[in-house]
Amino acid sequence: MSTVAGVAGFRFDEKTAQQLSAIYQTDDIKEMQRQYRVWFDPKPGEMILDVGCGTGVNTLAISKLVGPGGRVVGIDNSPAMLGVAREKASAENVEYRQMAVEEMDFADGGFDGVVCTQVLGYVADPVAVIRAVLRVAKPGGRVFVAETDWDTLAYNIPDKDLQRKVTLSFTDHHGDGWVGRRLYTMCRQAGAAEIELHPYVIHNAEYSIRKYGGPLSYVIRDYLLRSGKCTADEVKRWLKQLSDAFDDHSYFFSLSRFVCILRK
């Protein structure tokens, strides 16, 4: 995953890689990725590129759909992420490469499909990256791009001002927190011939490690403490209110993502 230089307090180190690996195993993300694959529709024998593959969870799932006659190449510029991918998401028809999306050296039209999930918010020029992934797709091939609108991060707790501060403090943790709502416009600017748009809302009412909002809250905690955007007392109060809300059955979590499926 290509990072934006100078984003304070957020880094893909070993701890973050393990945290994200846990997030990818939650019920919510597994269900979301199943829906993503329905929209993307990988077919047996296809050659697929997974840009910003992270810990390889989706790469491995796609490899099963393209079968032994197909192949999936996953690229990411984080050694920590790729370390998890190679350990936990390897297969004979999967290849992982350490590579930033801006440095892709694949031939034009070399892939039947390209997946680019949660990458554009980390790069300096998202439109150029969309053009790059379109370039490596075959004529008529499809490019799947998905991004989060982090301003839609919602936890239901009693202290509205505290939650608003947490959301706004975290929203630009990786660069542009509005990349989700800007995705359709950027795809048009990149010159895609066809754009199919799908919104997706992750939501649940269970504060636990099985659901996305649970482990995400620890990523948020660590970022807020490292960046100093919230005090240690504010972070402690926020986490306690999440736990208390679940205990009294008032807890609710939601976050909106947007998917664009492009064709040249």
Strand and helix map with partners:
Blueprint: H1 14-24, H2 27-40, E1 47-51, H3 57-66, E2 71-76, H4 79-88, E3 94-98, E4 111-117, H5 126-135, E5 137-155, H6 160-170, H7 179-189, E6 194-204, H8 213-227, H9 232-247, E7 253-263
Helix pairs in contact: 1-8
The CATH fourth-level homologous superfamily of one domain = Vaccinia Virus protein VP39
Radius of gyration: 18 Å
Q: Low-confidence parts lasting 5 or more residues at pLDDT below 50?
A: 1-10
Spatial sequence of strands, sheet with the most strands? 3-2-1-4-5-7-6
CATH class of one domain reads Alpha Beta
The description of the largest β-sheet is: 7 strands, mixed
**General shape:** globular
Strand content: 15-25%
Helical content stands at 40-55%
Tally of individual helices: 9
The sequence of SSEs as H and E is: HHEHEHEEHEHHEHHE
The N- to C-terminal Cα distance equals 24 Å
CATH architecture of one domain: 3-Layer(aba) Sandwich
- Multimeric status of the protein: single chain
Structural class, by secondary structure, is: alpha/beta
Describe the structure.
With 264 residues, this protein is an alpha/beta fold. It has a domain of 177 residues: Rossmann fold (3-Layer(aba) Sandwich), CATH 3.40.50.150. 41% of the residues lie in helices and 24% in strands. The protein has a seven-stranded mixed sheet with strand order 3-2-1-4-5-7-6, with helices on both faces. Helix 5 links the parallel strand 4 and strand 5. The longest helix is centred in the C-terminal third of the chain and has 16 residues. The N terminus is likely disordered.
